[in-house]
Amino acid sequence: MAYSELIKNFERVRDYMNEFFVYGFKSRNEYHQKSPRSYDNERRRIEDYLGEYMSFRQGKNGKNVFLSIDSRRVRHNPLYQAFKARSFTPGDITLHFILLDILYTPDEEKTLGDIVKKVDEDYLAHFYNPRVFDESTIRKKLKEYEKLGIVRSRRQGKSTLYRRSENFDLSSWKDALCFFSEAGMDGVIGSYLLDKLEDFQEPFVFKHHYITHAMESEVLCSLFEAMRRKNIVSFQIRGRRQRKTVQIRAVPLRIFVSVQTGRRYLMGYDLSRKYIWAFRLDLISQITMEAILPEFDTYRKRLEEMEPHMWGVQCGVPGGKLQSVSFILHFSDEEEYIYQRLVREKRCGTVERLDNNTCRFSAEVYDVNEMLPWIRTFICRISDLQFSKKSVQKRFCQDLKEMYRIYGVE
Q: Among 3.30.70, 3.40.30, 3.30.2320, 3.40.50, what is the CATH number of 323-407?
């Protein structure tokens, strides 16, 4: 098949964009999931979209390709460009412009018969070898556009009248679109809307700009739709260390976002495990909608009941016990901000003020391991650190010893 920079399915380039940006250390010979020709085609497509961000490094196994994007400096996520290269057939694009030309005036309504007649007589008749669009094809296209909001319809007697949707002035929403296209959950939608505006400057620069979220937009949109409709979904999820994929059937309940890494998770009831589980969004692909689940609200309520003991995304295992942790935090008179930080970041824990310079933190959670990176940020200020799970306490002490060894601390 001849090369084309346009794509029909975003999944074709998503994996390579992720590999090039997040990792960027592989050569052509180290990509085993597809053929070398597929690699060449996808690399070429990504270079067409993001050429100014593509870089190359010669390694011992060949030339390594990677995306180099400073997320602190870009004001508009460049990865959205890949969504705007959707392929189309000659028939689709021809009918698209003909229909929008016929329905150009928003307040002018036409029946299906009127539209079919104008397509034949006013447009196709001027070609020597015109494409033929029957009434059924035009009806399906109008219904598709109606679902997308491009066209509106209403019944009048036995006929259906069609008209183009009114234009909406987005100029007063410019700043909101600039912000939420970068900070919102499905920012690619805002990016499409921004394409309708001209001559404007992006007013925002983001300190924590998780641009890789763009590659999860299609997945996220499907999951939101499933939650709204209360559907079961099936999807493939890739192993973090192994490239093997596993088929999952689950009830999507919530999307959780890590405030530390920006990583996003689907919290869903796994119909195989019979328990609520966390699935990394960047590892999910090929979502399929299944039946509506009458018990959807029951599972969502179960997740809400778990949240008071969730530090991150771990829900424990069926029948498992809660794990406890506590420590005393010390701070001077001039370090009240340390106490305020603890209060601000305690999540599901509790803070008890003991005196002017000490307080006690305690929590009961499903998995204390999720708390360890946060607890380590208070090292040299904490004492009487207690874990109910001794293996976690042992791991914490071993991590400290290893850190002392690395930095040469006696």
A: 3.30.70
Most confident of 21-35, 120-134, 214-228: 214-228
Closest to 20 measured CA to CA, from 78, 74, 75, 72: 78
Among 352, 408, 71, which residue's Cα sits nearest to residue 212? 71
Q: What is the pLDDT of residues 264-277, one digit of tens each?
A: 999 999 999 999 99
Architecture per CATH, domain 11-69, reads as Orthogonal Bundle (1.10)
Q: Has domain 90-164 been given CATH number 1.10.10.10?
A: yes
HSE, side-chain direction, 13 A CA sphere, residue 347: 16
> Which pLDDT tens digit goes with each residue over 139-170?
999 999 999 889 999 999 888 999 999 888 88
Asked if CATH classification 2.30.30 holds for the domain at 226-309, the reply, yes or no, is: yes
Q: What are phi and psi of 235, to 5 degrees?
A: -155, 165
Continuous segment of H or E residues that includes residue 265 = strand 264-270
The strand pairing partners of 154, in sequence order, are 161
Q: What is the pTM of this model?
A: 0.81
User: Using N-to-C axis directions, what is the helix angle for 36-50 and 11-18, rounded to 10°?
Assistant: 80
Query: CATH topology of 11-69 equal to that of 323-407?
Result: no
368 burial via Cβ count (<10 Å: 0-12, 13-18, 19+) = buried
More confident of the two residues 170 and 64: 170
Q: How many CB atoms lie within 10 A of CB 300?
A: 19
